[in-house]
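Lab meeting prep.
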Amino acid sequence: MKVAASSLAPVLRSDTQGRILARLFDDPDTEYTVTELAEGAGTSFPTAQREINRAVEAGIAIERRVGQARLVRANAAHPLFGAMRQLLVATYGPPAVIGREFAHIDGALAVVLFGSWAARYAGDPGRAPNDIDVLVLGDPDRDAVDDAAERAERQIGLPVQATVRSLGQWNRGRESFITEVKRRPLVPVLVDEEQHPDLARELERLSTRDRVPR
């Protein structure tokens, strides 16, 4: 079976590999089960298992067994760990970094990645993105949003451009900007599912609409 090449980092064999390794390298002190890595990468258990086997055989990941569970983490002692972490965080790491830095902003109902990075992440071909576009829905403090963007930018190594729109603006969809965001690939990072289940369902639908299997 032919595997589609990585959209964000051509040196990697596939987007699935990139998403799994990004999760491991973004938080190298945390161990993950194969199921957690498969779910995070949006792939099947056998596919995740194969990618993990390759990473362990190459020495860039470490595993241990606890009963029937297989726990995996990045090998921070590997000579290429620093270079690989920088590559992975800059390419497949933005959802984790943005989610971490934009969490707990009062008034933020949802945080969504859009634009060229989201398009490459969804599998659309094109040039590597020059920045990360973030849409914050709700009525957050603008200074808090800008501070979060600056923190994320330092970690990712690319400019993080944050835009704020109210939930009313999103629902009305009259603005050309909102129409374009909804039309193109997007990646929901944070959403208040309990308070706004309709918004959560809409974002999930939009994010999976044009996803290319990798």
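Slide two material, second protein:
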Amino acid sequence: MNIQPATAVDASLLAWLDQACDFSAHWNETAWRETLAQPACKVWSAELDGKLVGFLVLRGAADQYEITNFAVEAAFRRQGIGRRLVQYALAQLPGGDVTLEVSIKNMPAISLYEKEGFVCRGVRKQFYKDGSDAQIMGKRL
């Protein structure tokens, strides 16, 4: 597996994968292009045999960061790709505080974050379109 920074050339593939994943943010290609152009955003893609299989978006500066979008293609889950993406992204930071929101229905993601040292910091009631709550998780680097 190869993890690398994503670029504007990757926007259509990122949008396709984002739309295909249940718990991602479902950004369209325009939103991906805008995100990739923001200096405060870092986007990493995971490729396996030349195929995009996952991504992670981190936004922030100084010592405050947020994982804003993260997904692994369904056929490639439970293979450590998501965990390696999280570990890689966090290793790129100089330190600070990292937060994220995750659906309380997404137990595999919650488990992954807990294994990486994230803890629950609160809940956002009815945060998602389906009415489910978001668990706010964070980690100090």
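Talking points for slide two:
The first strand starts at residue 2 and ends at 5.
The beta strands are 2-5, 41-48, 51-61, 64-72, 97-103, 119-124, 134-140.
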